[in-house]
Amino acid sequence: MGMEKMTIRFDGIDYPARLLEINLPNISGTHMISVDRLDVALMTKDGHYVSEEARAIDEGIFLYVPDKLIDVDEKQLMQVVKDFAA
């Protein structure tokens, strides 16, 4: 399993993200995980994308997690993904 930390810049703000190698029965491959506050920044209050750039970013994110979880170790983050996928 590999994991790479990165940053997604949107509207002048950097948001933490991680690439996570996922090998579950119903989900496999490398997927991007980012933080809930990026999800909020990409959408209007009524659920529309704020821009085409926002749509493109969102389509590349597999799962949004609370900020406190983006820096946990890989095993803990995989458990969050497994809980989400269950």
| Fraction of residues in β-strands | 35-45%
Task: List low-confidence stretches.
Answer: none
- Helix/strand-derived category reads alpha+beta
Main pleated sheet: 4 strands, mixed
**Number of E-state strands:** 4
Distance between the termini: 20 Å
> From N to C, what is the helix and strand string?
EEEHHEHH
Q: Which shape, going by the Cα principal axes?
A: globular
What would your notes on this structure say?
Strand 1 and strand 2 form a beta hairpin. The protein has helices at 36-42, 52-59, 67-70, 74-85; strands at residues 3-10, 13-23, 28-35, 61-65. The longest helix is centred in the C-terminal third of the chain and has 12 residues, at 74-85. It is 36% helix and 37% strand. A 4-stranded mixed beta sheet has the order 1-2-3-4, sandwiched between helices.
